[in-house]
Amino acid sequence: MESGSVNDQFTYITLGLFGFYIIYEGLRGRYRDGRKTLKDWQIFGISFAWLQFVERPMLIVCSYFTYRTLMPGLEGNYGHWQDAYLVPLIVAFILIDELLHGSVHYFAHAKRAKNKWLAVIQRWYKGAHRLHHTNGGPDGKGQIGASQTIVVSWGWPFSLPNYWFGTFCLYLGLWEVWIWGTSMKSLWGIHNHANLTYDMTLLKHRSPLISKTMYALCHVFVFPNQHHHHHSRSSNSGKNFQNFIALYDWLLWKKLVISTERPAVYGWRKSEAEETSVLYRFFHRPFMDKWKLGFFKP
Length: 298
Fold this sequence. Notes:
The longest helix is centred in the N-terminal third of the chain and has 33 residues, at 38-70. The protein is an all-alpha fold. 59% of the residues lie in helices and 0% in strands. It has 13 helices and no strands. It is globular and about 55 Å long. The chain has helices at 3-27, 38-70, 81-109, 116-130, 161-172, 175-193, 198-203, 208-217, 224-230, 247-252, 272-276, 278-283, 290-293.
């Protein structure tokens, strides 16, 4: 099957599932009573438009010319690997992609780096990631749903190393590996943000075999309630950094949290400017606190 047709099929599947979850959440009343505000929908629209029409094309163009300049001899030379090793390559792609993403995600949530230059980079990631955690109104009733998957402020996707890893795979000619790997991760990420509760039901199942099996699976894969706790306004916001492979949260970051209850409150507290303007919330970036980072003496 041609890579283009495979990509089209996964695009339709992803958009279809995305739309299904949004409609499902609406029918279940997940957007009522302050759970989702007008500003949340506005932010979703801005994020979607910016990602699709500005940032993603810019990433593809910039990464392609970077690779072509630095590694001109590698362009398209490894596509034949897919004929013999497609499944192992997809597994390797997902594991590497998840590790790169989890590393930066962990860095964005960590305490301020002691090295002042690392602190500047970290401040960028913290600011770029903040929008993904600011939802709902000031009443604390806001909840996340499938639409939150794509809520990211400018610069976050462009500066993620796993996105550059993906375009590098494309440059090498590993189209099918990239299509399958990114599609599987996207579908799983949408499912993790959606208001699904099956994982909590299985964790509380009366059968020990079912509950313990689900508990074990939560150490391998990320399920909705694990990611919902990452979006909570609690200490769990600094837990569960992965989108797909929970093994890294468990064995590498030591930040795995498994709960049978939903978070009490979602989202980070917002400043008055963030509460007032969706454009400020999307575009504002405190690049550098010069005094605290030690570049200048007061």
